[in-house]
Write a structure and sequence with these properties.
Layout: E1 2-8, E2 18-23, E3 36-41, E4 46-56, E5 71-72, H1 81-94, H2 98-105, E6 119-122, H3 126-139, H4 142-154, E7 156-158, H5 159-164, H6 170-178, E8 182-184, H7 208-222, E9 228-233, H8 239-252, E10 256-260, H9 268-278, E11 282-284, H10 291-302, E12 308-311, E13 323-329, H11 346-357, E14 360-365, H12 370-377, E15 382-386, E16 397-402, H13 403-408, H14 417-428, E17 432-436, E18 446-448, E19 465-467, E20 474-476, E21 483-485, E22 498-500, H15 505-515, E23 521-524, H16 534-543, E24 549-552, E25 565-570, H17 584-596, E26 607-612, H18 618-624, H19 628-642, E27 649-657, H20 660-687, E28 698-710, E29 713-722, H21 725-741, E30 749-754
Parallel strand pairs: 9-14, 9-15, 10-12, 10-13, 11-12, 13-14, 16-26, 17-24, 17-25, 23-24, 25-26
Antiparallel strand pairs: 1-2, 1-4, 3-4, 3-5, 6-7, 6-8, 18-22, 19-20, 20-21, 27-29, 27-30, 28-29
The chain binds adenosine-5'-diphosphate and zinc ion (2 copies).
One zinc ion binds next to loops.
Catalytic activity: ATP + H2O = ADP + phosphate + H(+); Couples ATP hydrolysis with the unwinding of duplex DNA by translocating in the 3'-5' direction
Family: Belongs to the helicase family. PriA subfamily.
Organism: Anaerosporobacter mobilis DSM 15930
Amino acid sequence: MIYADIIVDISHENLDKTYQYAVPKHLEEKAVVGSLVRFPFGKANRIIKGYIISLSQTPSIDVSYIKEIDEVVDNALVMESHLIRLASWIRDNYGATLNDALKIVLPVKQTVKMVEKRTIRLLLGLDEANAKLIELQRKNYKARIRLLELLLERNVVDYDTAINKYGITRPTIQTFVEHNIIEVEATKVYRNPIKNQQQVEQAMVLTHKQQAIADDFCNEYDEGIRKTYLLHGITGSGKTEVYMEMIEHVLEQGKQVILLIPEIALTYQTVMRFYKRFGDRISIMNSRLSKGERFDQYMRAKQGDIDIMIGPRSALFTPFEKLGLIIIDEEHEGSYKSEMPPKYHAREVAIYRASLLGASVVLGSATPSLEAYKRAKDGEYKLYELNERISGAKLPCVYVVDLREELKKKNKSIFSEKLKELITDRLNNKEQIMLFLNRRGFAGFVSCRSCGHVMKCPHCDVSLTYHYGRDKNKLVCHYCGYEEEMPSKCPSCGSPYIATFGTGTQKVEEMVKKEFPTARVLRMDMDTTTGKEGHEKILSAFANREADILVGTQMIVKGHDFGNVSLVGILAADLSLYANDYRAAEKTFQLLTQAAGRAGRSKDNGEVVIQTYNPEHYSVTTAANNDYEAFYNREIAFRTMMKYPPVSNILVAFLTSKNDEAVAKAADLFKAAVLDYKIQLKSQMDTAEDIVETEDLEIIGPVKANVAKVNDIYRYVLYMKHMDYIYLKNLKNFMEGFIDYSTIFKGCNVQFDFNPMNS
Ligand code: ADP
Ligand code: ZN
Ligand code: ZN
């Protein structure tokens, strides 16, 4: 008899441990590690699902208690054993249930009916189709014959109808898609836009610098060296071409490649560049794919139908069996950190996965994270640098405008005189302009000028944001979506002087139109890009010169190469500096550098205006000089002094509950337990003579979180700082056990986050 340890799928039970079941003889072949199985559970023998984590010949409990597995779920992806190891590593390092970690590495086949309507369309002509039918009949492929006959009858068939009414299976449809016999409409968007253009474009001739980097990487790869590289290259220096060269080399060795690109930069333009070079061997993933489509992509990857997967963070778990290289473009991006538990960072997970499979990792950025650059300097990663733009296009000329001086000049407009002058100039020359505002609807809050009352969300501890509506103006909560009408007088004192402060993108758009009435303006922010492909539409309209000025948030600084943009205006550079966040300067530097990099990509007259109240702040001055090294040196000194990552490590514990008192009490108990742990460990160390403790654990809090209430849930936070990551990891593991056993934490949710990115 074979025994399987099974982890229960969390959608059934919140049980994070394994249970042993016997595998009946007839299932022995199908039941492998990673299989999804159904089995009777509990006293009531409810049939539920779970994954096989391990198999053994001997039972670990009395066999009389061991029940049998019912069945192995068909068509489920078998989770590869290395992905199971990856999941337990994620759980161990970031804090989550094993189930949550497994969900991340393994997409679950969607069982609920697809909301999206999909249709199947025959791609073959009548003669071709009839010939195919004869061929299938000869081979007696019953299911395929049925599908083809159906399509010959009506040409287009509804996907769900085919499955539910005609008993056609998804694999049959999938096979036809792969043989180009049919096309499934809703999935075709990114399938392969150049399917019928067979010719793949030749690579460009690389510059000497690009070639030197590619050669070095390829030589090391051939020598069997596997490690992590950091490609630091200014915007427009040709990093993407270098990636493609590396990818090609790795593919030639029969290996597979994952390329991570932040979703926002994964535009049609970018995707096409890769399709043109690699054609059919690519698949693209994005968050717009349904669960089922994502599953299909994984299936194709697992079957070896593709060799390259391009996508955002989740593409990291593509089940390639011969993975040889993981590239992470825009490595510094906050979106590589998961906001849901387990709050893992794609960079760290990529490096671990690569080590399991013998792959290399390449990180690329114009503005590397402090973490990555420090490790490169410490020799942990190999550093490659590209510090010139391709085609010799000069870097734009940057002006820093002190907004305090503008006030002295009685200029109350949001445009400094310099910016106004340059906008007028570009409009006259029929060149394009991007105006960049940090953060959506920033400071769009509404308050009373008589009594100071601020309009707040009744469910969250944040102010409501003013939005221009078609007929009525609204106040919206950006945390929970709560909405109300803009009041005509103050609800607190009745004064009519209630108004919005600050500047949101909508306000900027309005002011641009007022100041430059002939200019055609497009706005891009969360509100204008909600629809499918919403941001793609705006970007391509701008690329087609349907507008002169594009106004937007950080969204506009990514991904697109607008050859005609020769002026970038950053309206208020400081907004991110005031954020209550140890990465504030780093984020400001990154945003300014990336935004500036949009100007003059193909022209030599690129100019950038940075408007700021802090013209002397190092994140502004170094960004204006495009001097990453100088920024890094200043910032790493600050982090060292303050003992912030990457010099030290921070573990954040987030405690939430509907009951404010209960969570406050739990947070106090949490702290007491951490202190206990610290003291115990210290006394153990004191008796062990050879261990010298260099750094102490520092505990900050518990305090109410920045936003102390969201959706009527109260939030507390504790920070634990220590030089040694392992110390904090052990502490986290200890606390997880403690929380499980203490009743005080009932009704409380505790989440962990290492070295937070988005606080
Ligand atoms: P990055 O990824 O560093 O921003 P890209 O790879 O997108 O830079 O290159 C910027 C521009 O330069 C692109 O339009 C690209 O096609 C072009 N380019 C890159 N390398 C070369 C080359 N060796 N010869 C000619 N053009 C190149
Ligand atoms: Zn008032
Ligand atoms: Zn709210």
